[in-house]
């Protein structure tokens, strides 16, 4: 489902609810003649129960997708800060290794910034950039290890510690991209939405009433909310994208400090 654009899913969902409403209305028209007050009350009660269940599912799913979005945004800031800290601590290492460490950090930052432009569904490109970042980090770590062995002081160890924080931030950010709303939850949400359309069509036509503007307004609002949920759940596509400005600023500052 992740590979399908959000607007396509929202459009299919709207059409499915309209079809379900039409089918429910067709059944309701046939039952209108024989329906009594109790059957109409039952249909309205079921409609109200489904509306409550759908509201609960929408609230839960929206909160879940927004939480995932916040985690990804925090992960970007965390990694940018970790890279920036490692850059500042290159001032504390020896002159013979400082320029090499800075060159590697610039290369590492550029790779991590490039990875922000790759769609999360493009696993091949993501894996390639992750491997490149880990290779550059390995070279950085060898520089830090050589500095620590030679100098053996807290200053050298602090640079190594900043690199450790940097690779931890890489793993955190990469893992956050793969966290999505479980598809089972989305399927349950969509199923409830479609079933509600059928019940709304049935309960209105069984009372010999055409679905009015409020019914269609409710449907449009729910479709918009579903679109927002799906859009929030896609960190590198759609209208709502994770802000990368902190990482851009960090990489730009390193490039300017030559």
Automatic annotation (TrEMBL):
Q: Where are the transmembrane segments?
A: 7-25, 45-66, 184-207, 213-230
- Does Membrane show up as a keyword for this record? yes
Entry keywords, A to Z: Membrane, Transmembrane, Transmembrane helix
Q: Which InterPro entries match?
A: DUF4239 (IPR025333)
| Official protein name in the record | DUF4239 domain-containing protein
Source organism per entry reads Limimaricola variabilis
């Amino acid at each position: 489902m992740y590979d399908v654009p959000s607007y396509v899913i929202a459009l299919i969902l709207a059409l499915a609810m309209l079809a379900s409403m039409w089918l429910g209305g067709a059944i309701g028209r046939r039952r209108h003649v024989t329906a009594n007050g109790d059957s109409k009350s039952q249909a309205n009660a079921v409609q109200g129960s489904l509306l409550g269940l759908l509201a609960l599912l929408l609230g839960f799913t929206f909160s879940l997708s927004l939480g995932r979005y916040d985690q990804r945004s925090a992960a970007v800031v965390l990694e940018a800060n970790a890279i920036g800290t490692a850059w500042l601590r290159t001032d504390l290492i020896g002159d013979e290794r400082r320029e090499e460490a800075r060159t590697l950090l610039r290369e590492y930052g550029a790779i991590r910034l490039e990875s922000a432009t790759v769609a999360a569904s493009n696993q091949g490109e993501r894996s390639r950039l992750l491997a490149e970042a880990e290779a550059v980090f390995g070279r950085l770590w060898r520089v830090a290890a050589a500095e620590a062995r030679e100098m053996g002081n807290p200053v050298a160890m602090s640079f190594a510690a900043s690199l450790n924080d940097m690779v931890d931030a890489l793993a955190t950010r990469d893992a956050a991209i793969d966290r999505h709303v479980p598809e089972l939850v989305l399927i349950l949400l969509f199923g409830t939405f479609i079933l509600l359309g059928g019940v709304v069509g049935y309960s209105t036509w069984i009372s010999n009433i055409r679905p009015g503007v409020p019914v269609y307004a409710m449907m449009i609002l729910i479709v918009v909310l579903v679109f927002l949920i799906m859009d929030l759940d896609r960190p590198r596509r759609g209208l709502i994208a994770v802000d990368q400005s902190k990482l851009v600023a960090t990489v730009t500052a390193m490039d300017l400090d030559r």
